[in-house]
Amino acid sequence: MTEDQSLVKPATNGHDPVKALSRYLDARTKNLAKFTASRLKPDVLIRLAVFEFSQNEWLRRCTPESIYGSLILSAQLGLEPSGIKGEAYLVPFRGKCTLIPGWRGLVKLALRSKAVKSLYSHVVYENDEFSVWLGSDPKVEHRPNVDGQRGNIRCAYACAIMENGVIDVEVMTIEELEKIRDMAAKGRGGKDGPAYQDWEDQMFRKAPIRRLCKRLPLGDDFFLAMKADELAEAGEPEKISSYIDVEAVETNATEQAIADNLSDRVAEKAARARGDS
After folding, report:
1. β-bridge partners, 156
2. Measuring CA to CA, which residue among 220, 197, 248, 239 is closest to residue 92?
């Protein structure tokens, strides 16, 4: 049990929390639709959230408002909040749900920009064969050892192939990866968050993608997702609303009015995210 999880006590009123969350989210389907940007259907988001909620004891101790806020963020980014695809994860943090984009989600957003033809990342272990060349003609050769024990993690890398054929590579040593992990733990009082506890290799794969993509010509949604990821990892999810409209509030504004203003707000906050990253 982590320190974060121990701060939250389970509900004791005997009601079915899964059905209660389902009713809570179903009542907000129409409002959630205003944020989907035609990428994800609200009923799909709700179904995925309820399933994840039913499978995760600590997520069931999170407030429904924070889960709804995470779905709004998920809708705006166009990422499914499910461990099945790994695009984004609903992660409990001190009784509240936080949406953390996965490395697959960052890749999806990068490819959406049309500037990137291919983007991938891998973790390299001690017993893998690995060579990398940088400079004017970057290249990576990685042969995983699948016949036996791969050993400890040695490094992680990301490679992007642009539409114009240019290749860019980012390699991060285990020391650099652990430094990022330690900084994230510091924001949580010296404890690893659930993401590192459950998906260590996935978090290590994401780090070089973030560093590499900071120098690529990507869209607004990518930089907003990356900022949300950085803040969640640093234990500061409450600051996400400064960059993305995640407030789970009801509104009487028309859908057209929200649609007209959303793109302007996204562009403005993406500019902030680029400048602060």
Report:
1. 123, 172
2. 197
In a domain, residue 140? The reply is yes
Query: What pLDDT, in 10s, does the model give residues 58-99?
Result: 899 999 998 998 898 888 888 999 888 889 999 888 788 888
How far apart CA 245 and CA 269 sit, in angstroms, is 9
Would you mind telling me the total number of residues written for the chain in this entry?
Answer: 277
Q: What is the pLDDT of residue 244?
A: 64
10 pLDDT more than 50:
no
77: left (phi over 0), alpha (psi -120 to 50) or beta: alpha
In the numeric block, the tokens 């017993």 are attached to 127
Instruction: Express each pLDDT in 11-36 by its tens digit.
Output: 445 578 999 999 999 999 888 887 76
Q: Which domain holds residue 215?
A: 105-221
Mean pLDDT of the chain, nearest integer: 81
Specify the number of domains making up the chain. Answer: 2
Q: Is 138 domain-assigned?
A: yes
Interior/surface letters 211-221, b for 16+ CB within 10 angstroms, e for the rest: bbbeebebbbb
Q: Which of 88, 39, 28 has its CA nearest to residue 64?
A: 28
| Same-domain status, 83 and 117 | no
**Residue 54 Cα to chain centre, angstroms:** 20
249 and 266 fall within a common domain: yes
- Tens digit of each residue's pLDDT (9 = 90 or more) over 184-226: 777 666 666 667 777 788 889 999 999 999 999 888 888 888 8
